[in-house]
Amino acid sequence: MIQPSPTRKEDPGFLYYAIKQVWMAAGATETHAHYVADAITFAHIQGKLNQGLGVYEAIDIALEMGILDISAEPKVIDEGPVWATVDGNRSSGYWCLNIMADLAIEKAREHGIGLVFGGNHNDAGSFARYVYKAFEQDMMAMSSNNTVPLAAPFGGMLNKLSCAPFDAISPAGDKPPVWTSVALAEFYDADVSEAAIHGKPLAGKWLIDPATGELSDDASRYAEPIEGYGRVWGCSAAGQIEEPRTYALNMWNEAMTAIINPLGVPSTALPSVEEITDPDTNNSVPSVGGSYYLCINPAKFGSIDAVKARSDAYVDAIQNCPPRPNHSVRVPGSVGYQRLIENAPEVDVLTNHWDPFFVGIAGKYGMTEGQLRLAYSEQKIRR
Question: Residue 383: its pLDDT value, please?
Answer without folding.
Answer: 64
